[in-house]
Design a protein that fits this description.
194 residues, alpha/beta, 4-stranded parallel β-sheet, two-stranded parallel ribbon, 6 strands
Length: 194
């Protein structure tokens, strides 16, 4: 339900996951999207898109939909396992739940978060962690934070770094690389941090 018209980093991760599953996955998928979701998912017969009647940008409605309507839809659609790729699990789901949690910033550094995130994640993130049969995280640091803050056994957490968009795979030719290195007087080894 996070996939709205405007995408953040988490939403881009979700969209890239769907694209990767369309290329490499072997299962059938039901993808639940908000009313305002642009048709950006891969055209794949294994993907059934279910559009909610609410937009993604009205947070209270989205939260209510995720917690009360989504579990009903999961049962109706005969879903075997639900992957909640945006921190929060549908707590009333009666099937196994996998949750992706990218960080614990709302718990560790609430002063850096909007009030809505502080309240929502402060209450629901611990419950989602308990509900989840498996938690996917992008780093060892996030795994450690979840183990310490949410008291989740480490064996229920898998570190799986997010994939890289194809646009980052394009490389300049060797001559262009050499010109840039010479122009900026860069010596090997080097690292680029953006």
């Amino acid at each position: 339900m996070l996939l709205g018209a405007h995408r953040s980093g988490v939403e881009n991760c979700i969209l890239q996951l769907a694209r990767a599953l369309s290329q490499h996955g072997t299962h059938d998928y039901v993808v639940y999207v908000p009313r305002d979701f642009p048709a950006a998912l891969p055209a794949d017969k294994r993907f059934q898109v279910r559009r909610a009647t609410i937009p993604a940008n009205i947070r209270p409605l989205r939260i209510l939909w995720e917690q009360f309507v989504l579990p009903v839809w999961l049962r109706r659609d005969g879903v075997d396992v639900v992957h909640a790729p945006g921190y929060i699990a549908p707590l009333a789901a009666t099937i196994p739940v996998i949750v992706t949690m990218y960080d614990t910033i709302a718990l560790q550094f609430p002063q850096w978060c909007r009030m809505g995130n502080r309240l929502h994640y402060g209450m629901i993130l611990p419950l989602s962690a308990r509900k989840a049969r498996l938690i996917i995280v992008p780093s060892v640091a996030t795994r450690t934070a979840i183990v310490q803050r949410l008291r989740v056994p480490e064996e229920r957490i898998r570190v799986i770094p997010p994939g890289i968009d194809e646009s980052f795979a394009a490389r300049a030719d060797a001559d262009t690389d050499s010109e840039i290195i010479a122009k900026h007087n860069i010596r090997r080894p080097y690292i680029l941090f953006v």
